[in-house]
């Protein structure tokens, strides 16, 4: 998996740096997108954690029923 380079400037900051006037609407959309991404990250973390718990349970159950020689 390749790392994604981190750009500390938000899209609105990049536009402002080249002289484009930023309206409150653009900032509001940017904040809404960030909030949506944080919510998505939280949901994915919970889902992956749940799948991990289920996988460990299945593995432990399978190990319990293996014959002992």
Could you give a quick summary of the protein structure above?
The chain has 69 residues and is mostly helical. It is built from 2 helices and no strands.
Describe the structure.
By secondary structure, this protein is an all-alpha fold. The chain is 70% helix and 0% strand. The chain contains 2 helices and no strands. The chain has helices at 11-17, 24-64. It is elongated and about 75 Å long. The mean pLDDT is 83.
Low-confidence stretches: none
Q: What is the succession of H and E elements? A: HH
Q: Tally the helices: what do you get?
A: 2
Backbone CA Rg: 22 Å
Give a count of the beta strands, DSSP E runs of length 2 or more. 0
Roughly what fraction of the amino acids lie in strands? under 5%
Cα distance spanning the termini: 41 Å
Structural class category: mainly alpha
| Share of residues in helices | 55-70%
Annotate the secondary structure layout:
Layout: H1 11-17, H2 24-64
Task: Name the descriptors.
mainly alpha; elongated; single chain; 0% strand; 69 residues
């Amino acid at each position: 998996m390749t790392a994604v380079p981190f750009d500390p400037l938000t899209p609105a900051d990049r536009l402002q740096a080249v002289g484009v006037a930023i309206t409150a609407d653009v900032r509001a959309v940017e904040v809404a997108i960030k909030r949506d991404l944080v919510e998505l990250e939280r949901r994915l973390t919970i889902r992956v954690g749940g799948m991990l718990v289920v996988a460990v349970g299945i593995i432990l159950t399978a190990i319990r029923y293996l014959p002992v020689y």
